[in-house]
Write a structure and sequence with these properties.
The chain has about 140 residues and is mainly α. It has six helices and no strands. Helices cover about 55% and strands about 0% of the residues.
């Protein structure tokens, strides 16, 4: 079972990264567990990914000047994700990826918003969170 510390260690690396790179790397990590989504890991991931919506009303976004990590390539991000979950079972990995990505979307810094979400920068956090969350969901699920 993963702990909050496991999630926070990976988040420390992921938060300064670009949204599209983290999303694609997480999708690749999920496909490493189960390329066809048949084993049920996607359902487990989904349950853990949807957890943060109500927290988005009160959560503060991450400040990039608090970061200790540089920008990584998509392949490097995938390596960090896989490395951080190497001792977990497939089910635990799915839960972990869901928790990490959900927290990442919740705290994602305004300064790193992708071009397609720029209009949400000045809107309430829950609206921005909803937009980012639904885009991640659609991208991973398709």
């Amino acid at each position: 079972m993963h702990s909050k510390d496991d999630v926070n260690q990976l988040l420390e690396i992921l938060l300064p990264q670009y949204f599209d790179s983290v999303m694609a790397s997480t999708q690749d990590a999920l496909r490493k567990i189960d390329p066809s989504w048949r084993k049920g890991q996607f359902d487990i991931f989904s349950k853990h990914f949807r957890r943060q919506f109500w927290r988005s009303v009160f959560a503060k976004r991450f400040l990039l000047n608090d970061t200790k990590h540089e920008i990584l390539l998509k392949t490097q991000i995938l390596e960090k994700i896989v490395l951080s979950s190497q001792h977990m079972s497939d089910k635990e990995m799915a839960e972990f990826y869901g928790d990490v990505l959900s927290e990442y979307v919740l705290l994602f810094p305004l300064a790193r918003f992708p071009a397609w979400a720029e209009e949400y920068k000045e809107k309430p956090n829950w609206l921005a969170h909803w937009r980012l969350h639904s885009t991640v969901w659609y991208s991973i699920y398709r």
